[in-house]
Amino acid sequence: MSGPSGDSPGPPVDDLAGEDVLRPVVRRRRREGAVSGTAYRSESAAADRTAEASPDTDEATKAHEPVAASARAAKTVDESWADAGEATKAHEPVAASARAAKTDVAAAKADKAATRAAKTAAKSSRAAERSTKQKAKGLKRNKRRQRGLGQYMAMPDLRGPKIAVGLLWFGTAVLCVLLGRLASTGLWAIVAAVAAWQVTTAWDSDEFSSPTYSKSLAAAGAASIVVASGVGTSLAGWALIGIPILLVLLHVIMGAKPADSGAALIGTILSAVAAASVVLVVRAETWAGLLLVVAVSLYDAGYFVGAAESTSRIEGPVTGIIGVLAVTFAASAMQVAPFDQATAWIAGGLIAIACPLGQMIVSAFLPTRDACVPAMRRLDAYLLAGPLMYGSVLAFGA
Predict the structure, then answer these.
(1) Spatial separation of the C-alpha atoms in residues 302 and 359, rounded to whole Å
(2) What is the pLDDT of residues 78-93, one digit of tens each?
(3) DSSP letter assigned to residue 9
(4) Exposed e or buried b for every residue in 99-113, given b needs 16+ CB within 10 A?
(5) Which of these, 392, 189, 227, 379, lies nearest to 293 by C-alpha position?
(6) Whole-angstrom distance, CA of residue 331 vs CA of residue 326
């Protein structure tokens, strides 16, 4: 609505709030003649209604304020989530790059670990190859030794008090030599009997089993030959021939085969020859008997020391021969009867050669070179050394 004078239209009544605002405006327009009587009454009624509704509007506005605040807060949260989503989207390439970097680091560590494992495996493989080659070489060496004379060289038995027993044996043997023929005969007869028993027992196995009485016959036969040697040389010779024949006959008489007496014959002859020769030397010349016992005892000691921790079969005999040569040097310097300086070296040289040969002969007649025959091993070096020394005494003593 516009006034007659062309004034701009007044503000709508609905846009005004409150009696204090609308009523003065309506009155002023009524005085100015811009509003007719009817219009005036209409506008006055509208102003009254607006004035009455204004308090309700204020109360509604006040009641709506928490909702509006919640709406604004929700809008703010939405905006924050939107910003966070955008930030997350913006951060995704960086996070992907970080994950890729971590994956690369883990892959690098895995590659290093695999490289180290491969190097360790290669080292282990090379070590295994070296060990296999060394074992193969060792087997080849052992086979060569078994094909040669080394197969007859027994390794010393390190179990038990070997040094104490050796010293006791050496002292007893020397003492019996100094005491004379009877003492020597008794000692060596006992050792021969035990050795014959052990050799006969060593041959018992699943493939070959001698009669139970073979051991007793072998021990009695060996001791008898040694006792005969203490009586005289001729009687010793007849005993060495006759007793083995008697052993075979006794086996046949008792119902066994002649072959069943084989183990008893081996034990009797090996032990009796070695022990009887020592007794014969002592009977012939006490000093020669002492030289024989000391020289062979030092050979045994040197052999034990040299071969005990060695993988070679040569070190034991070489060390033992050095001991024999040391005794020979002393005997030559002292000119032990019946030898002079030259003949002492001849006798000592024969002993040095005979000791290892006697050991190998005994090993050849045993089921295995490492058979448990400790008494026979005390006599094996005398098997050739004793008869050769007895021959030297007879040759150089005249």
Answers:
(1) 14
(2) 666 666 566 566 666 7
(3) P
(4) eeeeeeeeeeeeeee
(5) 379
(6) 9
Percentage helix, strand, coil, to 5, in the chain?
80, 0, 20
- Are the C-beta atoms of 185 and 196 separated by less than 8 Å? no
The label of the residue with tokens 């007849």 reads 238
Q: Is 377:154 a contact under the CB 8 Å cutoff?
A: yes
Structure tokens at 185: 């005969």
Cβ 268 vs Cβ 198: under 8 Å: no
Sequence-ordered strand ranges (E) for 199-351? none
Burial of 8 (0-12, 13-18, 19+ CB in 10 A): exposed
As a whole number of Å, the CA-based R_g of the chain is: 62
How big is the CA angle at 121 (ends 120 and 126), to the nearest 5 degrees? 100
- Phi/psi at 232 (5° precision): -175, 160
Let me know: does 296 contact 385? Beta carbons within 8 Å.
yes
Kindly report the pTM of this predicted structure.
Answer: 0.62
Within the chain, residue ranges assigned H as helices are 19-31, 37-147, 162-179, 181-202, 213-231, 233-253, 262-284, 286-308, 315-334, 341-364, 374-379, 382-397
Structure tokens at 126: 């090379």
Q: Which amino acid is at 315?
A: E
Of the ranges 79-88, 136-145, 349-358, which one carries the lowest mean pLDDT score?
136-145
Burial class (CB in 10 A: 0-12, 13-18, 19+), 120: exposed
CA distance 200 to 203: 5
- Are 377 and 350 in contact by the 8 Å Cβ rule? The answer is no
| Burial state string for 172-211 with b = 16 or more CB within 10 A and e = fewer than 16 | ebeebbeeebebbbbbbbebbbbbbbbbbbbbeeeeeebb
Instruction: Quote the CA–CA distance of 196 and 287 in Å, as a whole number.
Output: 28
What is the residue whose two structure tokens read 């005491």? 179
The three-state secondary structure class of 276 is helix
pLDDT tens for 204-249 read 875 677 788 899 999 999 999 999 999 999 999 999 999 999 999 9
